[in-house]
Amino acid sequence: MKAIAYTQHGLSIDDSRSLVDIELPKPTPGPHDLLVEVQAVSVNPVDTKVRSGSPTDTPRVLGWDAVGIVREVGSEVTLFQPGDDVYYAGSITRPGTNSEFHLVDERIVGRKPASLGAADAAALPLTSITAWELLFDRLGILENGGKGESLLIVGAAGGVGSILTQLARQLTQLTVIGTASRPETQEWIRALGAHHVIDHSQPLTEELARIGLKEVSHVISLTHTDSHFPHLIEVLRPQGRLALIDDPDTLDVVPMKRKSLSLHWELMFTRPMFETSDMIRQHELLNRVAELIDQGVLRSTLGEHFGRINAQNLRRAHALIESGKAKGKLVLEGF
């Protein structure tokens, strides 16, 4: 089968060897596995981080988002059958989705939204899981809850921010404030439903004051948390909650004590990586997102379609992710 891999970590994405087209044997499903024929994938920052920083002795296939058709099922599979249309983000401990066929545990797979094509659906799994877990599992917001409270989303125009903004606006009563520094990304966040948009390249206290807010009850920081951290502590109200997903070299959390602030870290791979007892929650929440998409409550966050799934197009997508200028999700479709 066709696949795209890296064989040497740390190469510049401008180097044609950074991602290469290869051939691999078609895999065989284990007891809980689905063998999925991949139709579309999307690219996430985790792809670029693994390619840059994780050494490998053998070709490593990246990709943690896929839409496809179930072709075979393992002996203990009960949730799906051959012919089903599915979408999922997979596990970072297994080969990625940038291949014609892919194995994934059924417990982290959802029914593809019926109203979306493969490309639009491929934009959703990893970011939807991350955003859902951030909002409802980590911060403990209740659906239709949060009345009188506020959520500041730092970096709201990216993949996670794009679906998080929608979830917070549509499923809670929070006042949603998104940050972006460019006119086109600011307009994108407004279109996704944010009540307010502020510029994170300016002092956050001044930007919040501009929209009539002194403080916020919740912050989700999706990028550059280390540089924003002192300001986030300043704008959080006493007993507020801060969640993040990025990888600061270090964080001095001691200043959080004075306000009794809490810190929550989110990694959507935790459940599949450790095969937690509630691993099936990702199956359930992906199905819920599919329902909300089909009901018109949520929309796809596809930002740009990069053509067919091959090394050349994936290198272009990785380059845009690394530039920090991506809006929404970058999707590739078909082999």
List descriptors.
Quinone Oxidoreductase, Chain A, domain 1; zinc ion binding; NADP; seven-stranded mixed β-sheet; 335 residues; ADH_Zn_typ-1; oxidoreductase; 30% helix; globular; alpha/beta; Rossmann fold
Structural notes for this entry:
Belongs to the zinc-containing alcohol dehydrogenase family. Quinone oxidoreductase subfamily. Homotetramer. It comes from Pseudomonas luteola. With 335 residues, the protein is of the alpha/beta class. It has two domains: 2-126 and 270-333, Quinone Oxidoreductase, Chain A, domain 1 (Alpha-Beta Complex); 139-265, NAD(P)-binding Rossmann-like Domain (Rossmann fold, 3-Layer(aba) Sandwich). 30% of the residues lie in helices and 25% in strands. The protein has ten helices and 16 strands. The protein has helices spanning 45-53, 118-122, 125-138, 159-171, 183-191, 204-210, 225-235, 270-274, 281-294, 311-323; strands at residues 2-6, 20-23, 33-43, 60-61, 66-73, 85-88, 101-105, 109-111, 150-154, 175-179, 196-198, 216-221, 236-244, 262-265, 302-305, 329-333. The strands form three sheets. Strands 3, 5, 6, 7, 8, 15 and 16 form a seven-stranded mixed β-sheet that branches. The protein has a six-stranded parallel β-sheet with strand order 11-10-9-12-13-14, sandwiched between helices. Helix 3 (125-138) crosses helix 4 (159-171) and helix 3 crosses helix 9 (281-294). The protein is globular. The termini are close together. The relative contact order is 0.16. The model has no long low-confidence stretch (mean pLDDT 97).
SSE arrangement:
Elements (H helix, E strand, L loop, with lengths): L1 E5 L13 E4 L9 E11 L1 H9 L6 E2 L4 E8 L11 E4 L12 E5 L3 E3 L6 H5 L2 H14 L11 E5 L4 H13 L3 E5 L3 H9 L4 E3 L5 H7 L5 E6 L3 H11 E9 L17 E4 L4 H5 L6 H14 L7 E4 L5 H13 L5 E5 L2
Parallel strand pairs: 9-10, 9-12, 10-11, 12-13, 13-14, 15-16
Antiparallel strand pairs: 1-2, 1-4, 3-5, 3-7, 3-16, 5-6, 6-8
Helix pairs in contact: 3-4, 3-9
